[in-house]
Amino acid sequence: MAECIKRSDWIKWKEAIEAELHSLKKREVFSSVIPTPRNIFPVGSKWVFIRKRNENNEVVRYQARLVAQGFTQRPSIGFNETYLCLISLAANESLSMHLMDVVTAYLYGSLDSDIYMKVPERLDIPNKNHSRNMYCVKLQKSLYGLKQSGRMWYNRLKEFLLQKGFSNNDDCPCVFIKKSLWILHYICVRG
Question: What is the mean pLDDT of residues 167-177?
Answer without folding.
Answer: 81
